[in-house]
Design goal:
This protein is α+β, with helices and mostly antiparallel strands. It has eleven helices and six strands. The longest helix is centred in the first third of the chain and has 17 residues.
């Protein structure tokens, strides 16, 4: 079972707007037949480090033909992947205040490539390929090119994009009708683009969920002793999901993640707030 399949099993709203390009878009959407706003968002160490999402949206909106041409000319190539990653790393390192059109288009292309065709779909996750004969990454690229249309603009326009401390943003959305989906960088693992998230940061997040969270939440992470202590102490629900790692690695070919949530009803967003 994939992690997204498990999430949909335990939280399956019908009218949630999902971010199309990045895993860290906080999303504000109305719950089905609910007058109150239902707040649903994924949370990381920084939502849009380097303003990559904002640049992607502006480029998509203002220079779509130029960006589309770069994407159409993209191949599954280790050299092209390295080129895209270098563009992002240089941008994060130098933090330019003023940029030209070509710079912004190339940065948007690099962001698209690294969030679609890196290992685990994360920037810095490594060049994606597969030894599984049933999985063709070049075929996936072909489909993604076909799906890359100006309709992406309207999808991003429904999102709030944050670049603030995680706890600050959580507090700003801390209401009793909020559903928080939290997917922080996994402490102690390869965090790629989000390197620097520590066990101390993770403990602060768990403390907030235990003591301050007014609504409902679902957290995805690896299992750990510290997480297990919070689960037992608070009576949270937990499900383990083991799935195959698509990209070859020297470690085991499977990994186990956990979903943790603080409600008992799995029938949908409206019902979980009745508990």
């Amino acid at each position: 079972m994939k992690i997204l399949d498990a999430i949909n099993e335990y939280f399956n709203p019908k009218k949630i707007v999902r971010g199309p390009v990045a895993t860290d878009l906080p999303i504000l959407a109305p719950g089905a037949e609910m007058k109150e706003w239902l707040i649903v968002y994924r949370i990381g160490h920084a939502f849009d480090s380097g303003n990559l999402v904002i640049n992607f949206y502006r480029t998509l909106k203002n220079h779509f033909p130029d960006l589309k041409r770069l994407i159409n000319a993209t191949l599954i190539s280790r050299r092209i992947h390295r080129e895209a990653l270098d563009i992002i790393l240089k941008h994060k390192r130098e933090k330019p205040q003023k940029t030209c059109k070509l710079y912004r288009v190339r940065l948007a292309w690099a962001f698209w490539l690294c969030t679609n065709f890196a290992y685990s779909n994360k920037i810095g996750g490594g060049y994606k390929y597969s030894n599984n004969m049933s999985v063709s990454v070049p075929d996936t690229l072909k489909r993604r090119k076909e799906q890359f249309t100006e309709l992406l603009v309207s999808r991003i326009e429904h999102a709030y994009i944050e670049n603030e401390d995680a706890i600050y943003v959580l507090n700003s959305r801390n209401v009793d009708k909020a559903f928080h989906y939290l997917d922080p960088p996994y402490a102690g693992s390869d965090q790629g683009h989000y390197a620097g998230y520590t066990w101390e940061d993770y403990a602060i997040l768990l403390n907030w969920l235990e003591s301050d969270c007014l609504g409902k939440f679902m957290l995805s992470n690896y299992n750990s002793q510290v997480l297990e202590e919070y689960i037992i102490r608070n009576g949270w629900q937990k499900k383990e999901i083991t799935h195959r790692i698509q990209a070859p690695r020297r470690s085991a070919s499977h990994k186990t993640e956990v979903l943790v949530w603080n409600y008992t009803n799995v029938c949908g967003t409206q019902d979980i707030f009745k508990n």
